[in-house]
Design goal:
By secondary structure, this protein is an alpha/beta fold. It has eight helices and 17 strands. The strands form three sheets. It has a nine-stranded mixed beta sheet. Strands 5-6-7-10-9-8 form a six-stranded antiparallel β-barrel. The two termini are 24 Å apart.
Length: 358
């Protein structure tokens, strides 16, 4: 299957630049895999699709203010840093721009959000095949403890914030209400629609709510550059499956309940663990580079709540696989649903509307 098979036309004005006024005021497209029926609803209606005995699984990773600014100490040139993965205290892999101006040995001074020197520094100590830089930070005990003061919300590039950059509203809204474990450099966006009252409404219908953790990184949002899907290699991402969630999901499945995954990251945790353990959910930490695309057999997840994703993205490919499990026609099914969303003027991408695949 080719990467170009997952292309589609999207009017630029449908790319959401702001979140809905309230989290649950977004729209919800419901795709029924049996028969291909599509419904157009509001997200606050989501609990209507939950049954007694179901289990809703969400990703509780917290987005960190992962975008930093710095100045080259030798030339005065400006850098933008996106923290990718922590190797140890003050030791990070980063996406650095412009990378060509930062060979090994480059020293830079970090700036606060007003552009003033902040007293912290970083040195490029290594590069890798992907062009990422490994930085050693100095002048602070632990750079992660300084991110609230120095870092910016790592909004994706299609969300434009001219001038001062991300707003205070972005700090609150580009984060789920149940975020707990810091580590993501992009939001698990399907969870952004939930409020605590909405989660309570799910529980009131006799369903359980539980959590996994996957720290969103390049594995989720890196573009597919290979012409054939089989040639794409996912970046590893860290996850944690608790013993409680593993037990609750297993028990719900045995009792005939459905596992409703909120977001592609949640799917990747559950299906990665099951694939590594002959279908069993073995709790613990791990790293995954699972790449799900049609045709795919899902061992755990029975329903998927997700946002509308970029053309040619691994997220769209996963949604296509889920739209028709074990079949190659999932591409046609998901792109047909996307065409319906475009006609109905749904809002796309991180701050956009949601899709429920049943």
């Amino acid at each position: 299957m080719r990467t170009a098979d997952f292309d589609f036309d999207l009017p630029p004005e449908l790319i959401a630049q702001q979140p809905a006024g309230e989290r649950d005021q977004s729209r919800l497209l419901v795709l029924h895999r049996a028969g291909g029926r599509v419904e157009h609803r509001q997200f606050r209606c989501f609990p209507e699709y939950v049954r007694c005995g179901d289990i809703l699984v969400l990703n509780d990773s917290r987005v960190i203010p992962a975008r930093l600014r710095a100045i080259n100490r030798q030339t005065g040139g400006h850098f933008e840093l996106l923290l990718l993965e922590e190797n140890g205290v003050n030791d990070w892999w980063v996406l650095l721009r412009p990378g060509k101006r930062a060979p090994v040995g480059t020293q830079m001074a970090l700036c606060d959000r007003t552009g003033r020197p902040a007293g912290a520094a970083a040195t490029v100590v290594q590069t890798n095949d992907q062009g990422h830089r490994r930085l050693s930070f100095s002048g602070v005990a632990d750079i992660i403890q300084e991110l609230d003061a120095l870092g910016e919300v790592p909004l994706p590039p299609y969300i434009r914030r001219p001038g001062a950059g991300p707003s205070q509203e972005d700090r609150a809204r580009y984060q789920t209400v149940f975020a707990r474990a810091p580590g993501s450099v992009a939001a698990p966006t399907a969870g952004l629609h939930f409020t605590q009252p909405l989660l309570d409404a799910v529980r009131s219908r006799g369903a359980l709510v539980c959590f996994v953790t996957l720290h969103v990184g390049l594995g989720t949002f890196a573009p597919v550059k290979a012409e054939e899907l089989a040639g794409h290699k996912m970046h590893e991402e860290r996850y944690e499956l608790s013993a409680e969630t593993a037990r609750l999901v297993t028990e719900a499945k045995r009792a005939g309940g459905r596992v409703i995954a909120v977001g592609t990251t949640t799917v990747r945790v559950l299906e990665s663990v099951a694939a590594s353990n002959q279908g069993r959910l073995q709790p613990g930490p791990g790293r995954t580079r699972i790449f799900i695309y049609p045709p795919w057999e899902f061992r755990v997840v029975d329903a998927l709540l997700t946002n509308f994703h970029l053309p040619r993205s691994t997220l769209l490919m996963l949604a296509g696989a889920f739209a028709a499990p074990m079949k190659t026609c999932g591409r046609e099914v998901i792109l047909s649903a996307y065409a319906s969303a475009v006609r109905e003027r749904y809002r796309f991408f991180s701050y956009g509307d949601a899709m429920l695949i049943l």
